Amino acid sequence: GVGTMMPGETPTAPAGSAAAGGACASCGILQQSINEYVAALIALKQKMIDGDRLLTEYQQKCTDILLEISALRCQVEKMLQKILPLEKCQEELGSLKAELEEKKVCL
Predict the structure, then answer these.
(1) Distance between CA atoms of 84 and 100, rounded to whole angstroms?
(2) Phi, psi for residue 69 in degrees, rounded to 5
């Protein structure tokens, strides 16, 4: 009886290993999917870090620009304060010139 059972058992062994092989293939696919998912997550995290860095740099640039603008405004204000008296002087000179012209005509 043992001799006849052996040939009958041998097909079941490959069938079992094939099933196991199928499961391993599924495990392999799952493992690959998990690896890809983890890689995607890492890439996303890196993008977020890069995005944060860019945002920080951008905010720093904005702050620098605002500081430059306020410094320029100060310079403009100072220049205007210097220009206003000069404009008054120019007006006075203009009226003096006009008076002199009138006097020249009279003479």
Answers:
(1) 24
(2) -60, -45
